[in-house]
Amino acid sequence: MSWAPTIDIVVPCYNVAHIVERCVNSLLKQSYRDNTISIYLVNDGSSDSTGRILDSFSRHQHIQIIHLEKNKGLSVARNTGIKAGSGEVICFLDSDMTVQPEWINAHLDMLGEVGIFGVIGDSLLPAEQTPNELDSYLYDLRRGARSIGEGSPIPFSYFLFNNTSVKRSIFDVIELFDEKITTYGGEDTELAIRFWEAYPEGLRFSSSASCVHHHPRELIDFCNLMYSYGKTNLPSLLEQFPQYKAELGGGWLNSIKGYFLFNSIIRWFISKMSNLGSSYWLSRYKIIDAAIRGARTVSHR
After folding, report:
1. Which of 145, 206, 171, 137 lies closest to 10 in space, CA to CA?
2. Where in the chain is the domain with CATH 3.90.550.10?
3. Architecture of the domain made up of 7-213
4. pLDDT tens digits, residue range 37-75?
5. What does the DSSP assignment read for 122-190?
6. pTM score > 0.85 for this model?
C-alpha cells in the first residue's frame, strides 16, 4: 500500500461488558503496521464491568483508556477520542462490533482514492445467530448504503459512524460531533450533513471493510428507540436543516400524504399482516412509523 497514514481508532464504550474484550482484541490483530495505530477506548460512564475490562488493556502500548465520570452520549465519547489523538485517519468502531485483520486496510483502499474523505463499512450478523424479524431488515441488501454500492457517492442519510473512517483534515473544515445530542439517534446524521455539504462527492461505502455486529435485539425494542429519536432529536434536525426536510423524513409528519400512510388504521393493518409473516417492507414501515409517531407528539403540543 503506497498510502500509509497514521491511524486513530475511536471506540465509544457503554455497558458492553459482554463483548468489548472481543472488540478490542480484534483491533489488536490488525495487519496494518502496529506503530502507526493508536486505539482510544472511551468508557462513557458505564454502570457494568466495562470499565474494569477496558483497564485490563491499560499496559498495551497502542491503547489509551479514557473514563468519563457519567454517561454523556456518543457525541461526547467520540469527540473525546478524536481530541485525544492526532492520526491522519480516524476510524470509528462501535464497541459491540468485531473486525477482521484486514479491516483497516480495506478502509484505506477506498479512503486513499482522490476526492474520497469518508468511508462507511458494512455490518454483518454473527454467523451463529439466526436472524429475527429485525435482523432480516437491518442486514437486507436494500437497506442503507448497501443499496448504493461501492461505485458511487452515497448521501449523508446513509453515512453512519458505527464502522467508519474519515480523514482528520475534514475537522479543519467542519466542527466535531454536536455534543448537545445526548440521546439515541441523530448525532451521526447531524455531522454527516455538514460533512456532505463540504464534500458532496466524498462519501463511499465499502463491503470489504465489514464488521460483525454483536447486538441481538427485537424489532419492538428498535422501534422504541426510533420513537424516542422521533420525539427528541428528529425535530431538532428538521429545525436545524429545513433544506433537508425530505431526506430526513419530515415530509411525512404533518402532510396529507403522511397522515394517509401513517395512521392508526394502516398501523392496525400492518400489525395483522405481520401475524402472517415478516418482510423487509413491513419492518421498514413499523420503524419509520415509530419515528413519525414520536415526532408528532412534539409537533402537536
Report:
1. 171
2. 7-213
3. Alpha-Beta Complex (3.90)
4. 999 999 999 999 999 999 999 999 999 999 999 999 999
5. EEE--TTSPP-HHHHHHT-TTSGGGGT-SSS---GGG--SSEEEEEGGGGGTS----TT--SSSSHHHH
6. yes
